[in-house]
Task: structure prediction
Amino acid sequence: MYKNLVAALAVACCISPVFSQTAAAPARVENPLKIGFVYVAPLADAGWVRQHEQGRLAVDAALGNKVKTTYVENVAEGPDAERVIRDLAATGHQLIFTPSFGYMEPTLKVAQEFPGVRFESITGYKTAPNVATANARYYEGRYLAGIAAGRMTKSNVTGYVAGFAIPEVIQGINAFALGLRSVKPEAVVKVVWLNTWFDPTRERDAAMTLFNQDVDVIAFHTVSSAIMAAAQERGKLAIAYHSDMRKIAPDAQILAVTHQWGSYYSQRARAVLDGSWKSGNVWGGVREGMIRVEGFGSAVPAAVQQEVLARQKDIAAGKLQPFRARQAVLDNEGRPMIAAGQSLSDAQILGMNWLVQGVQGKLP
Result:
């Protein structure tokens, strides 16, 4: 199943940093435009869902009484998602955002039943005349976080709690390791796989296990803030993901890798209102304002903050690419993966199914 996913993502390599459009969906609609959002976990003060909620609020602020937005939270991927998406379409919502990878197939199924409704499959890769996709180059922020982790670790052992072994997650682990080892070549990354996006108890337990293995800086690709709370409790350092989590871990947070959806969501809502909405796909990063590092903790020296922000500017300017090799890059079994002076193509990044040297463990 995983190999099939990798192949499909490689085929989907047409995703680009700029918006590309395909076949048009139905024409403009009358105000107010009803917009629905489906959230994979409960709405909390920080995390994946919070960032998409910030995007929804940005649509409200930008478009006012031209739109009426609603959301449904804590919707499991699978049959529950299909039911909720169908209910939104059936109750007059003309634009529906479904921000979770496991919502892709339910979104496509419901879209066939409601050809007059526009759907935005966030982190999905399959399009249809009334289904667009969008995702962010999270790995760019992960590389920057790795640099900060390399400057802050004392044990040279870092940890990473990961949800599912899909290319998006693997990209993040590898970019983090490359950033880490660019400033601390001897440092390593220990990975724990959970095979779930949201399970605060297991997320916390995984963090505690890593802390017991000399990990002093931890990163994660799950939905809740449980790992940040665990780091705060244990007196360790952590990289926040999705949102700034200093309220939860004021002493633990090194920085936050955040993603910003407000501009994209507002642009897509305007396109429905003026009749210009078309299916297509977006894969934006630091340059497009969809990814950034921010929220440096008080323990992070000014020199480290300045270094990370300078590298962020380099990424925005195209001077730095996480998967461009100054010297040959090997996987963690010693096989060459990127030749010196070469870069991975988008297709290769989207189909990533290997772990870079310095990452301990195997793909599940």
